[in-house]
Design goal:
Structural class: mainly alpha
Shape: elongated
Radius of gyration: 29 Å
Strand order of the largest sheet: 1-2
Number of helices: 21
Strand content: 5-15%
Order of helices and strands: HEEHEHHEHEEHHHHHHHEEHHHHHHHHH
């Protein structure tokens, strides 16, 4: 269908080109009257998404983007989608992936052809993100019930999506059922962050919501039954992170908005959250080293907060056959975080994580080498030779940086002043090299 412009187009004709009735209204500014030729007000009151005119023309012939937009509006405003629209999406969602060729002339005057997608991936990403951010559960349910996920996702991901509904979990820990049930319950339980008993912040990002949905999809590809007929899912967090990375990359969820936009997706952050989502709930949380606490929860406090949120959501969505959800590990992790914060405050008034940075360590190393030149004769100390020549030495510097941090967390009083910090750092460097 070709859309033609006309300067004398009437307002009714103009509004007839809109996709949905709730978008096909206008105001007569002279007479102060609402213009509603297509029943938009009625549909707003009834909370329903309907097409202006024929849904096939609007959603298939004119612009298949509108299929996803209908789901987005329904999710954002908690409306239902008219059955005629649902039927069209089920029958014609593959139109979204269709392409067409266009003839053009290049800058040298040569005739060329190019392939153009009917629906831009960036526009598709934005429609998905707006709906998913507003109401993750409803957006996923609509994608699922209309089969639209089959078009916007690659075949591998479609298979995982469908297998998640059949992938079982042990009933004593997951009486909610399949991996799919657990994932959808996780999306619903994002709301439980509000006024939670652990005082975990309730504000959630788009990255956290994506992580909550995808955090266990790796169970689909890692499920096995051991000798005792119990289910195992070894390395499923890593596998889930890889699936999430592919999901984000294929849909180009990182592309449609600026980095400071609330809908900005970071594949790195989503995969970090998924990879480590079990860490805060771990049974050994009480024995977790301060260095681990600093690395995962304090080095990037905002990301550490989201890791706690995801662990809380996961625990809230793991329904035991008997008894309440277990937040013991998270409580212990929160206690450890407060203790680590106190130690950091004792050793460093500037509120930076590492008491000594890489440049300072390199200077101390150069000084040590200068005072102990014989150390360079050892074959295993070739990295020190590079440092002495002012060349690379990042590996040993990074290792010493971590060792000094670990020591500082164990003995914060030895780092309370610059003088103490330098003395102790020299000692750590000396002990490590001479060992």
């Amino acid at each position: 269908v070709k859309i033609k412009t006309h300067q004398n187009l009437t307002i009714k004709e103009d509004l007839s080109r809109r996709e949905f009735t709730i978008n096909a209204m206008a105001i007569d500014l002279i007479n102060h009257q609402l213009i509603d030729h297509f029943g938009g007000i009625k549909d707003l009151k009834q909370k329903v998404i309907k097409c202006v005119g024929d849904p096939h023309t609007r959603l298939v012939l004119e612009d298949p983007t509108r299929m996803l937009r209908a789901l987005r509006f329904a999710s954002k405003y908690n409306f239902r989608v008219d059955s005629k629209i649902i039927d069209i999406i089920k029958k014609h969602h593959n139109e979204i992936n269709k392409t067409f060729t266009q003839k053009y002339t290049d800058k040298h005057g040569q005739p060329k052809t190019r392939t153009i997608e009917r629906v831009s991936r960036e526009i598709l990403a934005l429609e998905f993100l707006k709906g998913f951010d507003a109401n993750p559960v409803m957006m996923i349910e609509l994608l699922d019930s209309t089969n639209l996920y089959q078009t916007i996702l690659p075949a591998e991901m479609v298979q995982i999506w469908e297998q998640a509904k059949k992938t079982p979990q042990p009933k004593n820990y997951h009486s909610e059922g399949s991996v799919w049930n657990h994932s959808m319950l996780a999306l619903k339980n994002i709301a439980k962050l509000k006024n939670n008993s652990l005082s975990i912040p309730e504000h959630t990002s788009i990255n956290l919501k994506l992580a909550a949905f995808l955090h266990d999809f790796g169970k689909v590809t890692t499920i096995k039954t051991d000798a005792t007929k119990k289910y195992t899912y070894y390395n499923h967090p890593d596998e889930s992170a890889q699936i999430a990375q592919k999901f984000i990359k294929h849909l180009k969820l990182f592309s449609p908005v600026a980095k400071d936009d609330p809908l900005s997706v970071s594949s790195k952050k989503v995969t970090f959250l998924i990879k480590h989502h079990m860490l805060p709930s771990a049974s050994y949380a009480k024995e977790m080293k301060d260095k681990t606490i600093v690395k995962y929860f304090l080095q990037d406090p905002a990301l550490g907060q989201e890791l706690l949120q995801l662990a809380f959501i996961d625990a809230s969505s793991s329904i035991k056959a008997s008894g309440r959800q277990d937040y013991t590990g998270i409580s212990r992790t929160l206690q450890k975080i407060q203790l680590a914060k106190a130690k950091l405050a004792l050793m460093n008034k500037k509120k930076v994580i590492y008491p000594v940075d890489g440049n300072k360590i390199k200077k101390l190393l150069v000084k040590f080498i200068k005072d102990n030149p014989s150390i360079l004769t050892k074959a295993e100390n070739h990295e020190l030779l590079n440092i002495a020549r002012n060349q690379s030495g990042g590996k040993i510097i990074g290792l010493l940086k971590e060792k000094i941090l670990e020591d500082a967390l164990e003995h914060p009083h030895l780092y309370s002043t610059t003088r103490k910090k330098n003395t102790r750092s020299k000692q750590i460097i000396s002990e490590y090299i001479e060992k």
